[in-house]
């Protein structure tokens, strides 16, 4: 039903209030009652909307990295996108998982605790079939996995942890490590049943097969970095990165700047009359002794003392001492 009233409906409502058929105070009380929301303490919301948005951005990047990785490994087109990001009790998540599925348990130091990547069997077997040279067809036989199939599948998802590390590097530098490979969720207990977890569901399509990849991260694991998931931290980090980039760019430009370097052989003073009558082969006597080091200027600033010489038939000058503001540092 539309929330926008027509002019006739507005006139009828005002008329009813005026005549006393409807009580304005009663309407106000009804409106206040609608604002009361039911809160389930068994399903505590530990992540704010801002933090959920940050987790969504992180795993959107992870989905793009996985798309590139799996497309290269399986030599076919793979499409992975974020379907949803939800927070719920661990017990509720584990009940939603199929009785037999592919579960990869891993940890990410320095974060403490275990995390889980659950892959729908249809997707995992389609990937395995493609990896072994097939067309990417799915045959669900989780109960009868051979040792070779288990090894290949575990290695396939172990490679995806590098992309997980790269996706999280803007928040924290982690080192993910695969711990275990399990097919029965009943044998897996990451945290207590009532512990809040965030579940990131990725939709994956390969050939004619599609399914979900669920990433389960307990709240207790993310607790040390939860402040970093706020929008303020993202903006501050981006501003810091931009500032560092500007400083680096400025340094490169300064390093590429050209400065004149002059080795001064000596100085002399003559009067204007002698200067006006200078001719070819005339000699001007310098006040600089041949045994004294030469003054080297950077631009117009005295910077070094050196002695002249030759390198491979080219004139050169060797720096002997460094000066500071025109003063010898040894003085």
UniProtKB/TrEMBL annotation:
Residue ranges constituting the Flagellar motor switch protein FliN-like C-terminal domain according to the UniProt record: 253-323
GO cellular component, one term: bacterial-type flagellum basal body
Alphabetically ordered keywords of this record: Bacterial flagellum, Cell membrane, Cell projection, Chemotaxis, Cilium, Flagellar rotation, Flagellum, Membrane
Topological category with respect to the lipid bilayer: Peripheral membrane protein
Alphabetized Pfam families for the sequence: FliM, FliMN_C
Primary localisation category: other
Compartment list: Bacterial flagellum basal body; Cell membrane
Stated name of the protein: Flagellar motor switch protein FliM
Organism per entry: Pueribacillus theae
Upper lineage: Bacteria, Bacillati, Bacillota, Bacilli, Bacillales
